[in-house]
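Q: AB hydrolase-1 domain-containing protein, please. Structure only.
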Amino acid sequence: MDVTRSADGTAISYSSNGEGPGLVVVPGNNRRAHHYDAFVQALPGYRTHVLDRRGRGASGPQGAAYSIDREADDILAVAAATGSALVFGHSYGGLGALHAALRRRFDGLVVYEPGVSLGGSFDVSWLPEFNRRIAAGRRRAAMALFLKRSRLAPVPDTVPMVVHTSLTSFWTTHRIDG
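A: Structure for AB hydrolase-1 domain-containing protein:
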């Protein structure tokens, strides 16, 4: 794993593989660089650089100022460190890639299942409560609400909120190293 520094000084680790034009791969939520090994192997002809997002692997913590802008900073830092002009983002990593592309023109950008709502396709009625929880410093409670209402948790959204809270507590206390 190589390491670069993001705009705020946070260490961002990434693994590189292959030969050819540089391609930054941005994992989705609850994923690490190694989860994309098979994906990278299916891309002969590219020099891939799969980053470990903040809070994962050897990358630094998300920190109090964490935001989608920090995610974009991290992607831009890896692109600059590797000389890459191509970006692929999956899920939340796709949202980060889109934000990075607002600040830098890439030769190529591909996102798969980015976390965006197009024309109301995604129920966001829970966002005011989510924002209230964040503002009150209740980050785990906000994440539990996100998991339940976005239906992105690996359990049915019909399970009680305590299950989503337990998942959030596990993920935030055990870092995403699996």
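A: Brief note, in case it's useful. The chain has two domains: 2-112, 127-173.
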